[in-house]
Amino acid sequence: MTHLSTLRHRALAFRSLHVPGRPLVLPNAWDAAGARVIEDAGAAAIATTSAGLAWALGAADGDTLDRDRALAAVAAIAGAVGVPVSADIESGYAKDPAEVADTIRAVLAAGVVGVNIEDALYGEEAGAGPLRPAAEQADRIAAAREAADARGVPLFVNARIDTFLRGAGGVDLTLERAAAFLAAGADGIFVPGAVDPETVRLLADGVDGPLNVMAGPGAPPVADLAELGVARVSVGSGIAQAAHALVRRAARELLGAGTYDTLADGIEYGELNALLGR
Predict the structure, then answer these.
(1) From the Swiss-Prot or TrEMBL record, what is one GO molecular function term (predicted)?
(2) pTM higher than 0.70, yes or no?
(3) Which listed residue, 42, 88, 183, 245, has the most CB atoms within 10 A of its CB?
(4) What letter would DSSP give residue 61?
(5) What does the alpha-carbon distance between residue 245 and residue 252 come to, in Å, rounded to a whole number?
(6) Alpha carbon of 208 to those of 19, 27, 188, 197, 253: distances in Å?
């Protein structure tokens, strides 16, 4: 099977997993080892976390990592697993729609069949407001859609809307932006920061496409989110943050008390080595 035909097959499989009321659950990975562990745990697909990936490469999250380094890491993840992979590509690692299209072509070359593209602004651009104007963001989504379609791959474009995460608006503005992004070619809508059940229900009912929410401590369980009509649940940088908290606890224990209790629940060496050796 050629690279493109494999991508088409995986992209169609990934699309089919987005079912309102029976959500795709995505524990987010940031390296090949974690992706393999998540796949072995039974995940139907892998999603990357841009924050976790950036931290692993020694960079901060928020459009600071360059495209080549980011996508090299994403390619390693996609190459380590047999399930579909969706990549969080922040704002597209791009200044304009043409560069977004370049990123999408590189994403497909990396073996990825889905992307998250966010509408938040960072750095100097954030002076214009917390979010990119909807029309500009729609142009970037359209460029992503066209680049994937030109390759014949039904890439799942998940439009991330940061109204709640950035305190930039509520349900009405989110639905307005969602409609514009879906019209531009997005396949799903991702609204991190919205976990209140009534808010989630309004979003699920109002978005004309699969709704993705970001869960974590304090959020409703997956079963409850399913009842609200959610089609995709991910945890963003949550697992990466928990892993780095473990590193800190273990380091402080070792350097302080000189003991090793924090290390007691690690995956057994032989098991992990065998998993990565497949």
Answers:
(1) methyltransferase activity
(2) yes
(3) 88
(4) T
(5) 11
(6) 13, 25, 9, 18, 50
DSSP letters, 217-266, are TTSPPHHHHHHTT--EEE-TTHHHHHHHHHHHHHHHHHHTT---GGGGGP
Confidence of residue 42 (pLDDT cuts 50, 70, 90): very high
Domain ranges (residues) in the chain: 3-236
| Token duo for residue 244 | 């780095």
Residue 2: predicted pLDDT:
72
Query: CATH number of the domain at 3-236, please?
Result: 3.20.20.60
Count of CB atoms within 10 A of residue 126's CB? 15
- Integer angstrom CA distances of residue 130 from 60, 159, 187: 18, 16, 23
Q: What is the pLDDT of residues 186-225, one digit of tens each?
A: 999 999 999 999 999 999 999 999 999 999 999 999 999 9
Using CA atoms, how far apart are residues 233 and 13, in angstroms rounded to an integer? 17
3-state secondary structure of 117: strand
Contact 146, 2 (CB under 8 A): no
d(CA 278, CA 45): 18
Q: Which of 101, 197, 189 is nearest to 142 (CA)?
A: 101
Q: The tokens of 174 are what?
A: 């989110």
For residue 116 the two structure tokens come to 């998250």
Within 8 A by CB and 6+ apart from 31, the residues are 53, 56, 73, 76, 77
